[in-house]
Amino acid sequence: MKPFVTGHEDLVHDLAYDFYGRHVATCSSDQHIKVFRLDRETNEWQLSDSWKAHDSSVVSLDWASPEYGRIIASVSYDKLIRLWEEEPDAPECSGRRWTKLCTLNDATGPLFSVKFAPGHLGLKLGALGNDGTLRIYEALEPSDLRSWSLTTEVPVLGSSPASHLQSDFCLTWCPSRFLRETLLVCALDQALIYQKDKNDKMYVAAKLEGHEGLIRSVSWASSIGRWYQLIATGSKDGKVRIFKVTETSKGNLGGRIDEDSMSVDQDSDSSESNSKDSGLNVELISESGDHKGEVWSVSWNLTGTILSSAGDDGKVRLWKSSYSNEFKCMSVISAQQRS
Question: Which CATH architecture is the domain 1-167 placed in?
Answer without folding.
Answer: 7 Propeller (2.130)
